[in-house]
Design a protein that fits this description.
Oligomer: heterodimer
Strand content of chain B: 25-35%
Number of helices of chain A: 10
Shape of chain B: elongated
Number of strands of chain A: 0
Strand content of chain A: under 5%
Radius of gyration of chain A: 22 Å
Distance between the termini of chain B: 98 Å
Distance between the termini of chain A: 54 Å
Helix content of chain A: over 70%
Chain lengths: 262, 154
């Protein structure tokens, strides 16, 4: 009887704590929008964060994009040459990058590179009571710390995703044209004939914007909600990566199914 | 000093982002080749559209002059009504012929326009009366077999 009661207690506790966290996250999102005005009024705070989340992620984004593009070129050529249509390799590389891999891989890398940094920074600020000190000085930590980071992530993500797609296409070009020897004119013209700006490129941009919002909010909330201990911060950082990655992949499916059907 | 450094790097970052987006739009995508802005819409009825899809190209002499806007099925006359947007720069006579062709053996389907001899031109909401349906492979094969069989009968 006691064990059964314990079981229900645990079950109830796990559910209420989840609902509580969801509520806290929603409250944080609401507060971010309330205090957003301040982060644009003092734009240098946001610019500083764009530097740390966007510019600092540039190297990993460019290098991985180049390799992803090259691998796509090689693998695509292997299959396409069996059907004698190796010129279509440009279309394959461009569509795969612009529609899916660009936004998704950028978001995954962003969650690992910038999301963890945000969580650890805010978690440590909380652990060392910097956030409480700000409140004591009547400075809202949401306006000063959280909102600029949110907008920086939202701004940086689509930029990073378009850089990823472009560099990836160049990587595919390097493999396809000089190394394999696909005709250069056919490579670009087939690509241009089959990639539609309004549909393919715009849907990729919308995806990256949504991923940017999701990743940044998850990272900010995990940091803000972390227990103020060394262990708490480390677990929050891990949770940021896991939750962001799952959220990105799940959102990608939802967005793709909407875009394909619509 | 620090503030200027951040501003400069973020400026470079945003500029590189915009250049990539422009590169995607012009080099990878079709924003330059397909600057069809002002269009007029005409409709055409087909008994069978085959695999024609919305946004399929409209070609005249191989040049893209427009796009398929929508395809609906008319339940009164039991045929497909295809609305097409044609670039305002190109005018076609009223008796223009619309065919559904296939690019290559297995490629996408498109509508080919062949100009007629009428002195009046097609205008907004006009209907192209002379159309030819998509070629359905099964029909073609059965026609061929039928004609072979009737030859042998003789």
């Amino acid at each position: 009887m006691k064990t059964l009661f314990n079981f229900f207690e645990k079950l109830g506790n796990s559910i209420t704590s989840r609902v509580l966290r969801l509520g806290a996250a929603t409250r944080l999102i609401f507060l971010i929008f309330v205090y957003s005005g301040d982060s644009f009024k003092r734009i240098h705070l946001t610019i500083r964060e764009v530097y740390f989340t966007g510019v600092m992620s540039l190297v990993i984004i460019v290098v991985s994009a180049f390799f992803v593009g090259m691998v796509l070129g090689l693998q695509g050529y292997y299959t396409l040459q069996k059907y004698g249509s190796s010129e279509a390799i440009g279309v394959l590389v461009a569509l795969a990058l612009v529609r899916e891999l660009g936004p998704v891989v950028t978001a995954l890398l962003f969650a690992g590179r910038a999301g963890t940094a945000i969580t650890a920074e805010i978690g440590l600020m909380k652990a060392t009571e910097q956030l409480s000190a700000m409140e004591m000085m009547a400075v809202s930590p949401i306006a000063r710390i959280i909102a600029p980071r949110f907008w920086a992530g939202v701004i940086a993500m689509p930029i990073l995703a378009s850089i990823f797609s472009m560099v990836g296409v160049l990587g595919g070009y390097v493999v396809a044209v000089p190394i394999i020897g696909v005709d250069e004119g056919a490579f670009w013209s087939q690509m241009q004939a089959n990639v539609d700006f309004n549909f393919d490129i715009m849907s990729g941009l919308i995806k990256s914007l949504v991923f940017g919002v999701a990743c940044t909010i998850i990272a900010l909330f995990e940091g803000f909600d972390a227990p103020p201990t060394a262990e708490g911060v480390s677990r929050a950082t891990t949770r940021t990566v896991v939750t962001s990655s799952l959220a990105i992949l799940a959102l990608d499916f939802v967005l793709t199914s909407f875009m394909i059907s619509g | 000093m620090d503030k200027i450094k951040f501003d400069a790097w973020v400026g470079i970052f945003v500029a590189v982002g915009i250049i990539s987006l422009l590169g995607l739009a012009t080099k990878v995508g079709n924003l330059t080749s397909n600057d069809i802005r002002e269009t007029y819409m005409v409709t055409a009825n087909f008994e069978n559209i085959g695999g024609l899809k919305p946004r399929a190209p409209i070609k005249a002499a191989g040049v893209v002059v427009g796009r398929v806007n929508s395809i609906v099925f008319d339940t009164k006359a039991y045929h497909a009504v295809v609305s097409i947007d044609i670039d305002k720069r190109y005018v076609f006579p009223k008796d223009t012929f619309a065919n559904i062709y296939t690019a290559g053996l297995l490629g996408e389907q498109y509508i080919g326009l062949e100009a007629g001899g009428d002195t009046k031109n097609l205008e907004q909401n006009d209907r192209i009366t002379q159309t030819q349906d998509a070629v359905v492979l099964e029909k073609l094969i059965s026609q061929f077999l039928y004609s072979k069989a009737s030859e042998e009968d003789k």
